[in-house]
Amino acid sequence: MRSVSVFNTCSIRLIDVGSSLMAASCSLVDPELTIGLPPAVTAATGMDALCHAMEALVTKGASPFTDALALKAIQLLSENLVTAYKDGRNLEARSKVMLASMTAGMAFPNAGLGAVHGLTAPLGGHFGVPHGVASAILLPEVMDFNLADEGAAAKYALAAQVMGCESAVEKVRAMNAEMDVPSLGSFGITEESLEMLASDALGENSNCNSNPRAVSHADAVALLRAGL
Fold first, then answer.
1. Where in the numbering of this chain does the Fe-containing alcohol dehydrogenase-like C-terminal domain appear (predicted)?
2. What pLDDT, in 10s, does the model give residues 36-85?
């Protein structure tokens, strides 16, 4: 698990933090507690769950076990998240979104994450971008980037099958559009900040290192630019 430990206007230092005491011994999951959650928060948290699943599906640490979990989460989110966003009192949709979040939450700790989570790490510290929003913005851009990797492309084809579409990338873009996910530019991020953000996103502890396709500094800048 990674955590922002020190940050200022110039840089963010990430350190590894881990302990069995950080894991719950029991979790009570009740979708009724999410009734009344603002639509924008529903979108951000739901898309972060989708990001967990999509990244677990293609990351270097993926396995048949995590693939099964990730694909089920992707299916449930593609079928129910937009409904939960538009009708926050739809308990069936919220239940399935919460189940998907839990399922993705079992996939990614065992498989790892990828470039989306690597690139989003400095966005909150420098510009206050909510993590789920940043994940939603960058997910389709990173997926499109990863299509150049044969293995990732094959996994995204499986994702498209369970999502009932031809392109998983375009489905994610459409979900973002339906839920009015903003751009990075709306948080005041400009071209002038991209080099610094890319530098902070990469390094020894970055999730970018687990991405199926290697991410260079220039790649990181280009992916962040696509989210503006």
1. 42-226
2. 999 999 999 999 999 999 999 999 999 999 999 999 999 999 999 999 99
Angle at 160 between CA 80 and CA 155, to 5 degrees: 120
- C-alpha to C-alpha distance for 111 and 65, rounded to whole angstroms: 9
Residue 7 within any structural domain of the chain: no
CATH assignment of the domain containing 171: 1.20.1090.10
Task: Report whether pLDDT(173) > 60.
Answer: yes
Domain presence at residue 87: yes
Largest separation between any pair of C-alpha atoms in the chain: 45
pTM score, whole prediction: 0.91
Q: Which of 62, 12, 6, 27 is nearest to 193 (CA)?
A: 12
Alpha helices in 13-167 (DSSP H): 39-58, 64-86, 91-111, 115-127, 131-146, 150-163
Rounded Cα–Cα distance for residues 90 and 107 (Å): 26
Cross-strand pairs, 2: 16
Domain of residue 178 covers 37-226
Confirm whether 22 is domain-assigned.
no
